[in-house]
Design a protein that fits this description.
The chain has a twelve-stranded mixed sheet with strand order 7-8-9-6-5-4-3-2-1-10-11-12, covered by helices on one side. The chain has one domain: Alpha-Beta Barrel (TIM Barrel), CATH 3.20.20.70. The protein contains eight helices and twelve strands. The chain is 29% helix and 20% strand. Residues 285-291 have low confidence and may be disordered. With 291 residues, the chain is α/β, with parallel strands linked by helices. The chain has helices at residues 44-56, 75-85, 99-109, 130-143, 163-172, 190-195, 200-209, 271-280; strands at residues 14-18, 61-65, 89-94, 113-117, 149-154, 176-181, 212-215, 222-226, 229-234, 247-250, 255-257, 266-267. Helix 1 runs parallel beside helix 2 and helix 2 (75-85) packs parallel to helix 3 (99-109).
């Protein structure tokens, strides 16, 4: 079935599926997938109904998120449900702390790729450090969950001097380094004001060093090949970021969220909920971001 169009003519093809709000780390910049409430997690039966109906409506790619999705005890079953529902690309984003023992079973269940949060080689500010994620990174590569993406949230006075180190790390494992611009998680976000680094100058620096340059259709993301490694820029302040959005979100409590900034959650009641969620999609006047 052809994927549905929203009122702005954007065809929805990607599902971003939050399976829990729980996490075993506490990253100060976390936007909790746009949902501040911590309610009951949807059951596997409810999740199965939602993702199967959405696949039948034409959505074909899915990213599993949290919280930290690997804290959910039935995460292997979740992946298998998505595989059986017919999604052509099933991926997952994780902080990596539990990935070492789960990479193989996840791959066997149908997971294709992982994004692993790794902000720094060593830091007292961000918990996503190399020591925590390295066993999971190695297990993911060994299991064939490739290409792995290393997600680095760039932070002033914390890790901006380590970008080349993370680039080298990604190169050693055949991974993609994804540089993510920090977003504000509240109207009075002192952490954002202190640590935000605009990625536009960094983008220009990479362009000079790059041997190849591509622009992905998804949110106009730019990729540069630098010293044999692909670097992807995720800048939610880029003018085409929302204009090219093809994502629909499902919250951990089983609601449809048209976008991260719309302020709308549509409880799942069946396919009519998709119609309501589509109608609420828009281009925000000020982009806060959705990675």
């Amino acid at each position: 079935m052809t994927a549905p169009l929203d009122p702005l003519g954007r065809r929805l093809t990607h599902l971003r599926l939050s399976v829990t709000q729980r996490c075993d780390l506490a990253c100060v910049y976390c936007h909790r997938e746009g949902s501040s409430e911590t309610g009951p997690e949807m059951s596997l039966a409810t999740l199965t109904e939602i993702v199967t109906r959405l696949a039948a409506c034409g959505l074909s790619k899915v990213k599993i998120t949290g919280g930290e999705p690997l804290v959910r005890a039935d995460i292997i079953d979740v992946v298998a449900v998505l595989r059986d529902a017919g999604y052509s690309d099933v991926s997952l984003t994780t902080n990596g702390t539990r990935l070492a023992r789960l990479a193989g079973p996840l791959r066997a269940a149908g997971l294709r790729r992982v994004n692993i949060g790794c902000d720094s080689l060593s830091s007292s500010v961000t918990p996503k450090t190399l020591a925590r994620v390295l066993p999971g990174l190695e297990a993911a590569v060994a299991a064939g969950l490739t290409p792995v993406k290393l997600n680095m949230v760039v932070l002033r006075d914390v890790n901006e001097h380590e970008i080349d180190d993370l680039l080298a790390l990604a190169g050693r494992y055949g991974a993609i380094l994804q540089l993510i611009e920090l977003i504000a998680t509240s109207d009075d976000d002192a952490f954002f004001r202190q640590h935000h680094v605009p990625l536009a100058p960094l983008r220009d620096h990479l362009a000079v060093r790059a041997t190849a340059h591509r622009v992905r259709e998804l949110q106009g993301r730019e990729q540069f090949d630098v010293e044999g490694t692909t670097v992807e820029i995720v800048s939610p302040f880029h003018r085409s970021f929302c204009g090219n959005c093809t994502k629909l979100r499902v919250t951990a409590d089983g609601c449809l969220m048209p976008c991260l900034v719309a302020g709308v959650k549509v409880p799942w009641r069946g396919p009519e909920s998709l119609v309501e969620a589509l109608a609420a999609r828009r281009l925000p006047g000020r982009v806060h971001g959705c990675d």
